[in-house]
Amino acid sequence: MNKHYGTVLIMGLNFINTTMHSFLNETIYPLLESKEKCFIVTANPELVMGTRESSEFKHHVDSADYVLPDGIGIINAAKIKGMPLRERISGVDLTQAMLEYAAKNDYSVFFLGAKKDSNQKAVKNAKKTFPGLIVAGHEHGYADITSESFIDSMVATRPDIILVALGMQRQEKWIFDNINRFDKGIFIGVGGTLDVMSGNVKRAPKIWITLQLEWLYRLIQEPKRFFRILKVMEFMLLHVPIVGPIIQKLKFNENRKKR
Question: Which of 3, 111, 151, 228 has the least CB density, counted as fewest CB within 10 Å?
């Protein structure tokens, strides 16, 4: 569906090269008005590495209409390639903008995913922050959200925006498996966005983001993310001249030995 934007290819994924403002005004708002369907992936370095390790996951991401550069690592990788992206498009910021627009223009939103407490708080806070927001429905990510009865009940709500916060891979698979059941809707995998909206997870202060240390702030908050951070580091090393080809060769030899 990508009719508007040039793309930058990073490790097999085509990232759209635009700004948040343009994406909202040229794509999101017109799609809501025309009631078309759309699948959006917000991709950070960890997601990119995941597509290299799972062909099924790569297939799910490739089926998306738009892959957004959500992560400073993606921006830096594009610069190293000599094909800079215009702007990082954060999933959290995009979600906030969509909710604000939905509240002002009577579009409905379905909140799917996160833990039960986070899901409920995110919905409550969204209603408070965006008066008039129409919540088509909500369900946490530990319920039976793949059952026929649940999908049928969700389809019946006819949401205009579907926020899917099931974690990387699981959320993209859910959208891939179910988007064709709906007759309209902007489906977007938002990862930990509902946790942030609920207040259960604090977003990094602007100064940390400006200094490109958002990853460190999150690691301090959630030490269990350490091994996930290693994937981000590997992603960046793969884009360093000389070092990248060496890592690629080591990976190739390692995979050959496993066969």
Answer: 3
